[in-house]
Design a protein that fits this description.
- The protein is α+β, with helices and mostly antiparallel strands.
- The chain has 26 helices and 24 strands.
- The strands form four sheets. Strands 15, 16, 17, 18, 19, 20, 21 and 22 form an eight-stranded mixed β-sheet that branches.
- A hairpin with a 5-residue loop joins strand 4 and strand 5.
- Helix 10 runs antiparallel to helix 15.
- The longest helix is centred in the middle third of the chain and has 37 residues.
- About 2% of the residues have low confidence.
Length: 808
């Protein structure tokens, strides 16, 4: 302990003699430690902490697909789910849940709509989740004639009921139906992510449960002990294929089985891991920078170290003392980094897309602080070990001779300095290339033609208690009244209704269809079409261009000829070189007089992005007067700021029916911006890290070259005295500075290619190995490095040879 205390005291005295070096080193390391700690806190909260389910590694999610028509996602019907449960042996248990949250209306003094899911009674058992209060759902709750029960999420319990334990056993009016609260889930249970209510599926939708042709759910399964994922895939694939042979109208012929974690985290998983790798690269660049500073400092102390070795000091003791200096710098940097992480965490969380699960759990807790401690220890070793080892073994004769104080650094330190400069350049190039790829992806997505005009457009969802508007005619009459009243508001140019507004979610209203003239085998290869039911003014309100024919009118009513409007992509695919107007198709519409009836195409409109920005699907539109699916969302075109009329629209909805709620009242531009949230987040954060790495790399190059020029004043003076010109000296210094940068660029190209492959699922509109992006990143880095070398080179070229030699 005494030796350690002496090392620390000596290190403090030594650092006090070079305050500027300490300030720069602490600031550089604090940047790396703070940024990496903040990002790790998010990655830890979202990805690294165990899922709140028992033995989560055995959980999988399953759905269906159709390889014949390249449809990757087909939902599961309830009868198919029952067959899976009975026939699959690789699964210990299976549960079913719809692919989208349902809006449940809670009655009370202030009616509210909450998101929830209909689930099978064994849903919580399959996940291995226990209730915080009361009990979870049981299989007995999920049968025809069972009493209606509901389980509440922790957030809803706290927000709506003040955390009252007596809520268990109470009756709540949910969608107009009395339901008994049987349990409250723990705070950590958030699956599906936005659900706050869970209620059994069979008593809620008996018609859908009995219909094999209605695809609406996914399956969550728990693998049997010892069963492998590939076994489960093979077995379920065979079951789906057998069911398809027995049912000629089956939409799917194969199964998809994926680990639960992949679907739970979605695209956030690769994005956050890429960002963590990026910020750790920044930390490595910072360590290399500080290592170069300490190496330069050690070169200035060669005489001092040689004297101590000559007087009997051991090399191990010198190494410990030099490492103590880097450790003190790292500890000071860690303190600043943790403060920086605390300040920046809230801003970082605000940048992360809101749909990332468990994001609200990000905090500087013990696990994150342990990471900061580990990062600090690693930084101290990475920054200080190599300089300490090299400084502790100088050539005594060279170091003690009179000219040693101005001699250039020995071969090994000089090579290490070049290696550090090259490493910084390589890592900076990797980050610049990654930032360039994400920035181009973001710009490509921003330039996507949405097919509609989101400006000055307000969207909202009209929610009503389940069962109040069971008859389609009542729902249609309600929307006719709402739209007529909204149209009379000052500042409203047009309004319309649509079943699901664009960018409402990844899941939507997918349907099979048959084009007239197709055989059964041909129609089975058709991709699913995005089906929308719209009011007569929808295309004009959204400014979706009408390419051919006509839009819907109020004369397209139930009882009249069935009509449809298709998207351009649909028309091009199925009637190439033909006039699509007058062509016919049919789709299954259970409960409608147009079920499998021929619908005549009366119009063609532009392609629109309904599910995702990356691609337009095939769209098929029905008049809401001829569809069993009435409008779920309203869209309102305004003359000014759409939010200015939002209170008036809400008031109209409540005034029309006190049981109605206007939910998700949002400008369409905000919806589009949210869809761009992931790419924007990646581009912003990667760009920030890349700029930090670029600045650190340039600073490191400048520091090394400035140090070398200072150490080689005598050599440069001799060269100039012997006739070297200023240009020759500048070329010498620039060449020496850019050689390790060039080597680093070569290594960085390989790293950039590897990063591009890792980011391939996050990119849009460009290849992971985009040559232009890589060349641009390399040019920026080369220019910054050349600028960093230029100033020391210019100082060397302006050196007075006589003054330099007199000084020596």
């Amino acid at each position: 302990m005494n030796g350690l205390a002496q090392d620390v005291r000596y290190a403090l005295r030594s650092l006090r003699s070079r305050p500027m070096l300490v300030v720069v080193a602490v600031a550089v390391l604090a940047l790396g430690i703070g940024a990496s700690t903040a990002v790790f806190s998010v990655v830890d909260a979202v990805l690294l902490r165990p899922l709140p389910f028992a033995d989560a590694g055995r959980l999988v999610v399953a759905w269906q697909r159709s390889p014949d028509n390249s449809v990757p996602f087909i939902e599961v019907s309830y009868p198919d789910y029952e067959d899976w449960r009975q026939q699959a042996r690789a699964f210990e248990a299976m549960a079913i849940l719809p692919t989208v949250n349902s809006g449940f209306m809670l009655a009370g003094d202030e009616p509210a709509q909450v998101q929830g899911r209909l689930v099978s009674g064994n849903f919580f058992d399959v996940l291995g989740a226990r209730a915080l209060l009361g009990r979870a759902l049981r299989p007995d709750d999920d049968r025809a004639g069972a009493g209606r029960v509901v389980v509440l999420g922790h957030g809803l319990w706290q927000r709506r009921f003040g955390g009252d334990p007596a809520v268990v056993g109470r009756k709540l009016l949910v969608d107009g139906t009395p339901m008994e609260v049987v349990g409250v889930m723990p705070r950590a249970f958030r699956y599906p992510p936005k659900a706050e209510i869970w209620t059994p599926v069979v008593p809620a939708i008996p018609d859908a449960v009995a219909n094999r042709g209605v695809y609406w759910a996914i399956v969550v399964g728990r693998l049997a002990p010892g069963a492998r994922l590939d076994q489960a895939r093979t077995e379920l694939d065979g079951i789906v294929a057998r069911l398809a042979q027995a049912n000629p109208h089956a939409a799917a012929t194969a199964a998809v089985v994926t680990p639960f974690a992949e679907t739970f985290f979605g695209p956030a998983r690769p994005a956050l891991f890429v960002l963590l790798a990026a910020v750790l690269l920044v930390l490595l660049v910072a360590c290399a920078n500080v290592s170069a500073l300490l190496l330069a400092r050690a070169a200035d102390r060669r005489r001092e170290i040689a004297v101590r070795l000559a007087l009997g000091a051991s090399r191990g003791r010198l190494v410990r003392q030099l490492l103590a200096e880097s450790a003190l710098i790292a500890v000071a940097a860690a303190a600043g980094g943790i403060v920086m992480a605390h300040w920046s965490l809230a801003a970082l969380v605000a940048l992360v897309p809101a749909d990332v699960p468990r994001l609200q759990d990000a905090a500087l807790d013990a696990r994150v602080l342990a990471f900061a401690v580990a990062a600090t220890a690693a930084a101290a070793l990475l920054a200080g070990l190599a300089p300490a080892l090299l400084a502790s073994r100088p050539s005594l004769a060279d170091a003690l001779e009179s000219g040693a104080r101005t001699a250039g650094p020995a071969g090994a330190p000089r090579r290490l300095q070049g290696l550090l400069v090259g490493a910084e350049a390589a890592m900076a190039l990797v980050l610049l290339s990654g930032a360039g790829l994400m920035a181009q992806t973001f710009q490509n997505l921003k330039r996507v033609d949405l097919g509609y005009d989101p400006r000055r457009l307000l969207t909202l969802e009209v929610a009503s208690p389940h069962g109040k508007y069971e008859k389609a005619a009542e729902w249609r009459a309600l929307h006719r009244t709402l739209l007529e009243r909204i149209d009379r508001l000052p500042g409203v140019e047009a309004s319309a209704g649509v079943f699901l507004r664009p960018l409402w979610g990844q899941m939507g209203n997918d349907w099979v269809f048959t084009v007239e003239g197709q055989s059964d085998a041909e129609s089975e290869r058709n991709p699913h079409v995005n089906l929308e039911a719209v009011t007569s003014g929808y295309f004009a309100t959204m400014r979706i261009p009408l390419r051919r024919g006509r839009a819907f009118t109020d004369r397209d009513t139930e009882g009249g000829p069935g009509v449809a409007v298709v998207s351009e992509g649909f028309a091009r695919r199925y009637w190439p070189g033909q006039d699509p107007i007058g062509q016919r198709l049919k789709i299954p519409l259970p409960g409608s007089p147009y079920h499998l009836a021929w619908l005549t195409v009366v119009g063609v409109v532009g392609d629109a992005r309904y599910r995702e920005l990356q691609a337009a699907r095939l769209d098929l539109y029905l008049s809401y007067l001829q569809s069993p699916y009435g409008p779920k969302h309203l869209v309102v075109r305004t003359a000014g700021d759409p939010l200015a009329i939002a209170p008036s629209v809400r008031a109209i909805v409540r005034d029309t029916d006190r049981d109605l709620l206007a939910e998700d009242v949002t400008p369409m531009e905000t919806v589009v911006a949210a869809a761009l949230g992931g790419p924007r987040f990646g581009a912003q954060l990667l760009s920030a890290f890349a700029l930090a790495a670029l600045a650190l790399a340039a600073l490191g190059t400048y520091g090394v070259m400035a140090f070398l020029v200072g150490r080689r004043r005598r050599e440069i003076g001799v060269r100039m005295a012997l006739g070297a010109r200023a240009g020759d000296v500048m070329g010498l210094v620039l060449g020496q500075g850019m050689r390790p940068v060039a080597a680093g660029l070569a290594v960085g190209v390989a790293g950039s290619l590897a990063l591009g492959r890792a980011m391939s699922t996050l990119l849009f509109g460009l290849a992971p190995h985009d040559a232009l992006t890589m060349a641009g990143a390399a040019a920026v880095l080369a220019a910054a490095s050349a600028a960093a070398c230029y100033f020391p080179a210019r100082r060397a070229a302006r050196l007075d040879p006589a003054a330099a030699l007199r000084r020596e």
